[in-house]
Amino acid sequence: MDTPHRPSASACPPVATSTSSAPAAASGKPRPHARCFALLTDFGLDDPYVGQLKGVLHRLAPAVPVIDISHGVPPHRVETAAFFLAASHPHFPAGAIFICVVDPGVGTPRDLVSMESCGQVMLAPDNGLLHLAAEARPDAVLRRLDPARLPDPQSATFHGRDVLAPLAARLAGGESLAAFGDPVLPTDLARPAWAVPRRESDGVHAAVLHVDRFGNVVLNLSLREWDWLAACRLHLPDGTLIDIARAATYADIPAGRTGLVAGSQGYLELAADKASAAERHWLHPGAEVLLEECR
């Protein structure tokens, strides 16, 4: 039996309005959720993979708009995709169906999973991609999808096109995820080491989720839990030790220094003013750092 889902109002995106221009009160019926597909992949745009994914969606659900979150996730960087999803889904309406395909284990016995929360649906491989989003919504319903109940893949190497896209179209048409898989606990799903920062006796152990085009280094330290961190000594992977200070904005970071900033995407960032903190400290997604003596 599914667990009832009653998230707080602040945890959910606003309910999308109907495409009709008539006021909802005129008919006495609530406005329906506005369906859309949201795509997140590491496919890039040089190959035909994104086009094929969109082609299947348009063929099976031509009235549902498709929105690209990003196709620029570095190949196989699940932690970056997890960050993109966690940072993006609050800005989408109820009714959005997220198709997340960063899947280095495609064709292996890895499972496909789903998450339902606040009227949204997220589909992904079970490799940690949903972890950060699920962590932010503890009342979400998670499912392990049953291969016997899913669309048959045409290829062992493209489940995004052959399985997740047709499944998303069926969900957009009104079918329930309950027909495709059974609920599981968050602890039943994959949780890679990068997904969980650790507070230990020597400090806070954190991982790099993403480096943006400005060189800002996004850590797996959500503002929900870690916004108390201030001045620290930062241990870098090469053994270098530097002092960093908390800064309200990038411009507040002194020239030549590295600061700790509450980023707009909901996570703490290592940053430099008009410079790349990533290049300065040789940081990349998956790297681990230690923040010591934080106050």
Task: Please give the count of helices.
Answer: 7
Uncertain stretches: 1-10, 15-31
Gyration radius (Cα, Å) is 20 Å
Mean pLDDT: 90
Largest sheet composition: 7 strands, mixed
Measured between the Cα atoms of the first and last residue, the distance is: 46 Å
Strand order of the largest sheet: 2-1-3-5-4-6-7
The helix-strand sequence is: HEHEHEEEHEHEEEEHEEEEHE
Count of β-strands: 15
Helix-residue proportion: 10-25%
What is the 3D form?
elongated
Could you say which structural class the secondary elements and strand pairing correspond to? alpha+beta
Task: Map the helices and strands.
Blueprint: H1 24-27, E1 36-41, H2 49-60, E2 66-70, H3 78-88, E3 96-101, E4 112-117, E5 120-125, H4 131-136, E6 141-145, H5 159-172, E7 181-184, E8 198-200, E9 203-211, E10 217-222, H6 223-226, E11 232-235, E12 241-247, E13 259-262, E14 267-271, H7 277-281, E15 288-292
Parallel strand pairs: 1-2, 1-3, 3-5, 12-13
Antiparallel strand pairs: 4-5, 4-6, 6-7, 8-9, 9-10, 9-15, 10-14, 11-12, 11-15, 13-14
